[in-house]
């Protein structure tokens, strides 16, 4: 990060710190002003929104129709506010993306992994990207970790390293002299990853909870010796048993981060280890399957977000498929932002497989998504039943070699400690939907006891 960019991100972070002292009434007034501004911009620049909200330009936010990722992608060229953007050009840029390359020399592109069956493409201009960087920086500050310009802090991240993933792009943008970082591909052999961490000795560690839990087991067993001062988890729910395991290995230094490609940092834990929604960056609405609001303390079927700093692709009541429970109680830290009691939406993304050394191992569906990102299909789903896997594919060419898919998946599984697994690949016309009507990437079927 060059000094000018550093100052611009720091300026946005300073504004966010001031919001920490707001009351709920001040926050609501700010949200109302921001959503009006966002809607005015969308109606002026996006043909999609002029049609989508026709007759409701002055209606309350809660009366507008929710926006799905599928609907956005179907109308991409009309959705974006820059008429020079065409979805075909964006898709070609995605295939050729390297490093910090920019679409039309202006926009940074990120893409979802497609774990919900429908990948999405998201463009950010410079101002929008500064806010994204500031949101991740803020997540670290909430934990009590501040950038100290007098000393360096070594960091290690274990995750996806594809150039179009949000975490990869943010890490590249935030990289500076003060935070030298090692980024490791989570799909590689686990023992090699542990060895690299032992050599690097990071002060800050970031990865998926399931991965860090495996590292904690190695630490407790004496096969790993690292001493991170902060551990940031994200990408899947931080289950209580995983948090307990991490704290047994390294103490109470674990902070959860809830982020999304479409939003940036959605929520982050404060010093009290409460997960705060960043409500000064967006309006969150926890709703049921029929898009009706659910009360605090109840589980929603999805989260709708209305973003304040997205001009290229305005997101107004945009659907995130995570199931959240919002706490009815405020946080003792005094910040005005509501807190998430728990995130339940991605537990179904863990695939149980036989382990190489006996027993079972649970792998995140992201391992499958990393392979399927390179396969020309329109949709896919994994069905697991009694240790057997079935892979449903939509749109695969008749002449495409299915064996190469099985081989690639098994290489990824074995690298994560699983035994080789027979995979039944089936071409289908449509991916079956779950009970709530959503397409889910993994269906776990349990046989008779």
Your description of this structure?
This protein is an alpha/beta fold and 449 residues long. It folds into two domains: 1-345, ANL, N-terminal domain (Rossmann fold), CATH 3.40.50.12780; 348-445, ANL, C-terminal domain (GMP Synthetase, Chain A, domain 3), CATH 3.30.300.30. It is built from 13 helices and 20 strands. The strands form five sheets. It has a nine-stranded mixed sheet, sandwiched between helices. β15 (350-354) and β16 form a beta hairpin. The longest helix has 22 residues, at 24-45. The protein is globular, with a radius of gyration of 22 Å. The protein starts with a helix and ends with a strand.
Keywords:
GMP Synthetase, Chain A, domain 3; 449 residues; 33% helix; Rossmann fold; four-stranded mixed beta sheet; 2 domains
Helices and strands in order, then pairings?
Elements: H1 3-19, H2 24-45, H3 47-52, H4 69-74, H5 76-79, H6 87-96, E1 108-111, E2 121-124, H7 126-142, E3 155-159, H8 166-174, E4 181-185, H9 190-200, E5 204-207, H10 209-221, E6 230-233, H11 240-250, E7 254-260, E8 264-269, E9 275-277, E10 282-287, E11 302-307, E12 318-320, E13 324-326, E14 339-343, E15 350-354, E16 360-364, H12 366-372, E17 379-385, E18 388-394, H13 402-415, E19 423-427, E20 442-445
Parallel strand pairs: 3-4, 3-5, 5-6, 6-7, 17-20, 18-19
Antiparallel strand pairs: 1-2, 7-8, 8-9, 9-14, 10-11, 11-12, 13-14, 15-16, 17-18
Helix pairs in contact: 1-7, 10-11, 12-13
- Low-confidence spans: none
User: What's the total count of β strands?
Assistant: 20
Termini distance?
56 Å
The CATH homologous superfamily name of the largest domain equals ANL, N-terminal domain
Structural class: alpha/beta
Please indicate the percent range of residues in DSSP E strands (runs of 2 or more).
Answer: 15-25%
Could you say which overall geometry the principal axes of the C-alpha atoms support?
globular
The CATH topology of the largest domain turns out to be Rossmann fold
CATH architectural arrangement of the largest domain: 3-Layer(aba) Sandwich
The largest sheet has its strands arranged as 4-3-5-6-7-8-9-14-13
**Roughly what is the average pLDDT, rounded to an integer?**
88
User: How many individual helices?
Assistant: 13
Task: Report the C-alpha radius of gyration, rounded.
Answer: 22 Å
The description of the largest β-sheet is:
9 strands, mixed
Portion of residues within helices: 25-40%
How many domains? The number is 2
Q: Under the CATH scheme, which class of the largest domain?
A: Alpha Beta
């Amino acid at each position: 990060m060059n000094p000018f960019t550093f100052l611009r991100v720091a300026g946005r972070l300073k504004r966010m710190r001031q919001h920490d002292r707001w009351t709920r009434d001040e926050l609501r007034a700010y949200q109302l002003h921001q959503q009006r501004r966002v809607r005015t911009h969308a109606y002026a620049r996006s043909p999609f929104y002029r049609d989508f909200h026709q007759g409701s330009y002055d209606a309350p936010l809660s009366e507008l129709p929710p926006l799905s990722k599928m609907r956005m992608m179907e109308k991409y060229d009309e959705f974006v506010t820059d008429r020079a953007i065409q979805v075909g050009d964006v898709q070609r840029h995605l295939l050729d993306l390297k490093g910090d390359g920019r679409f039309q020399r202006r926009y940074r592109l990120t893409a979802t992994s497609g774990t919900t069956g429908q990948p999405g493409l998201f463009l950010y201009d410079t101002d929008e990207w500064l806010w994204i960087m500031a949101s991740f920086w803020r997540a670290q500050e909430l934990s009590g970790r501040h950038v100290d310009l007098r000393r360096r802090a070594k960091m290690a991240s274990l995750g996806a390293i594809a150039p179009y993933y949000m975490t990869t792009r943010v890490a590249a943008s935030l990289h500076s002299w003060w935070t030298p970082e090692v980024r490791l591909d989570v799909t590689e052999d686990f023992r090699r990853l542990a060895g690299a961490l032992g050599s690097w000795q990071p002060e800050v560690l970031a990865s998926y909870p399931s991965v860090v839990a495996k590292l904690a087991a190695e630490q407790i067993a004496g096969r790993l010796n690292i001493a991170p001062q902060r551990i940031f988890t994200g990408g899947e729910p931080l289950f209580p048993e995983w948090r307990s395991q991490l704290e047994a290995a390294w103490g109470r230094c674990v902070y959860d981060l809830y982020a999304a490609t479409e939003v940036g940092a959605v929520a982050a834990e404060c010093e009290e280890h409460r997960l705060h929604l960043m409500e000064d960056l967006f309006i969150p609405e926890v709703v049921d399957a029929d898009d009706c609001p659910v009360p605090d303390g109840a589980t929603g079927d999805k989260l709708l977000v209305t973003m304040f700093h997205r001009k290229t692709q305005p997101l107004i009541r945009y659907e995130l498929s995570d199931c959240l429970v919002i706490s009815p109680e405020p946080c003792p830290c005094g910040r005005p932002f509501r807190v998430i009691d728990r995130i339940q939406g991605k537990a179904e993304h863990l695939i149980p497989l036989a382990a190489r050394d006996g027993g079972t191992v649970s792998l995140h569906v992201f391992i499958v998504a990393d392979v399927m990102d390179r396969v020309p299909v329109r949709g896919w789903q994994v069905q697991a039943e009694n240790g057997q896997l079935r892979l449903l594919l939509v749109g695969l060419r008749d002449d495409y070699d299915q064996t190469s898919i099985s081989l690639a998946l098994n290489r990824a599984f074995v690298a994560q400690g699983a035994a080789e697994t027979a995979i039944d690949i089936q071409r289908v016309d449509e991916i079956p939907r779950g009970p709530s009507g959503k397409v889910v990437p993994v269906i776990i079927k349990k046989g008779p006891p």
